[in-house]
């Protein structure tokens, strides 16, 4: 009897997760990292499950192409803005994701990106490697410190709360946050719930750690960028779509804000001719928020177990309810 089929929409997934799947499924692993939508469309028919990432678009057309065998999508991410939930619901497909296991790693990346941006690490590193380290003045390569600053965290879920805890150790002067509800854990750190407009106006460092959806698309728009302090540094570890990127580029080009540290952008990968590529006050990372070996391995195992749970008709370890 033939076994149900899983499509793994990327290559080089940790073998431990592939082995888990192989015990129960026929597993087809794609042989590129950035699988095109056309390739995905070709491979999904007859599959029971798709193991995917935010680089893949799970829309109605893909779901229809997969056909009635498709029962579960397991995304190796906490974000699921790349999945059309109404189409999933319409065709009765369940969605697994990977919250919690990546919280600390993403928060670590955020703190690193914030420091690298405000203290100009990459600019300084480039100067050292290209002979720019000569005749330096006292204020050469100086940035702004985090101590005594106002930090604003947009979206205080698990990741935002962990970032707040870590930054507290830097002796910041004030912690602002936005959230649908008060967060006692963040309040206990001295955090203050404010509106997004208050946050962008008052913060020296603005950190986006919020999910992308209809309500949060372009939450950082031209008007809000105009309200930021002239030295404000914007850090985004959520999704590129949270920011009106053209407005950000304009503000950076005109030095209306201090800088930006972006782990996510639009599109991904960012084309080499993007103006962001040429800016000294911008640090760009290739969406590596959760990229520690331990965390990515845990995420892969969790994604496999989410998929297996559907085959077993048991509770999924981490299921998106919609
Ligand atoms: O959604 C996620 O999991 C983050 O973007 C990290 O990849």
TrEMBL record:
GO MF annotations in UniProt: glyoxylate reductase (NADPH) activity; hydroxypyruvate reductase (NADH) activity; NAD binding
Keyword Nucleotide-binding: no
One GO CC annotation: cytosol
Domain of life: Eukaryota
InterPro entries given in the database record: D-isomer_2-hydroxyacid_DH (IPR050223), D-isomer_2_OHA_DH_cat_dom (IPR006139), D-isomer_DH_CS1 (IPR029752), D-isomer_DH_NAD-bd (IPR006140), NAD(P)-bd_dom_sf (IPR036291)
D-isomer specific 2-hydroxyacid dehydrogenase catalytic domain: residues covered: 9-320
Keywords noted in UniProt: Oxidoreductase
CDD domains recorded: GDH
All copies of domain D-isomer specific 2-hydroxyacid dehydrogenase NAD-binding, residue ranges: 111-289
Membership in a protein family: Belongs to the D-isomer specific 2-hydroxyacid dehydrogenase family.
Protein name as it appears in the record: Glyoxylate reductase/hydroxypyruvate reductase
Organism of origin: Acyrthosiphon pisum (Pea aphid)
């Amino acid at each position: 009897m033939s076994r149900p089929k899983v499509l793994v929409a990327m290559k080089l997934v940790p073998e431990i997760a592939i082995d888990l799947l192989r015990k129960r499924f026929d597993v087809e692993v794609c042989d590129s990292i950035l699988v095109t939508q056309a390739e995905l469309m070709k491979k999904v028919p007859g599959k029971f499950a798709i193991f995917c990432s935010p680089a893949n678009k799970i829309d109605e057309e893909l779901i229809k192409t997969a056909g009635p065998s498709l029962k579960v999508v397991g995304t190796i991410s906490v974000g699921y803005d790349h999945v059309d939930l109404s189409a999933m619901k319409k065709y009765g497909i369940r969605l697994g994701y990977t919250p919690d296991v990546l919280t600390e790693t993403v928060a670590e990346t955020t703190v690193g990106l914030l420091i690298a941006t405000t203290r100009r690490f990459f600019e300084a590193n480039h100067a050292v490697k290209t002979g720019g380290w000569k005749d330096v003045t006292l204020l050469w390569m100086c940035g702004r410190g985090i101590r005594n600053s106002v930090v604003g965290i947009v979206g205080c879920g698990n990741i935002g709360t962990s970032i707040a805890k870590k930054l507290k150790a830097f002796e910041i002067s004030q912690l602002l946050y936005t959230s649908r509800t008060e967060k006692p854990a963040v309040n206990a750190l001295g955090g203050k719930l404010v509106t997004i407009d208050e946050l962008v106006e008052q913060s020296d460092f603005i950190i986006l750690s919020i999910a992308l959806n209809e309500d949060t698309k372009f939450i950082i728009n031209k008007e809000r960028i105009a309200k930021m302090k002239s030295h404000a540094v914007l850090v985004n570890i959520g999704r590129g779509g949270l920011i009106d990127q053209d407005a950000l580029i304009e503000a950076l080009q005109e030095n209306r804000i201090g800088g930006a540290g972006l782990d996510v952008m639009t599109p991904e990968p960012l084309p080499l001719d993007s103006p962001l590529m040429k800016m000294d006050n911008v640090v760009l990372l290739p969406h590596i928020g959760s990229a520690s070996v331990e965390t990515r391995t845990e995420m892969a195992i969790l994604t496999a177990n989410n998929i297996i749970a559907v085959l077993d008709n048991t509770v999924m370890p981490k299921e998106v309810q919609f």
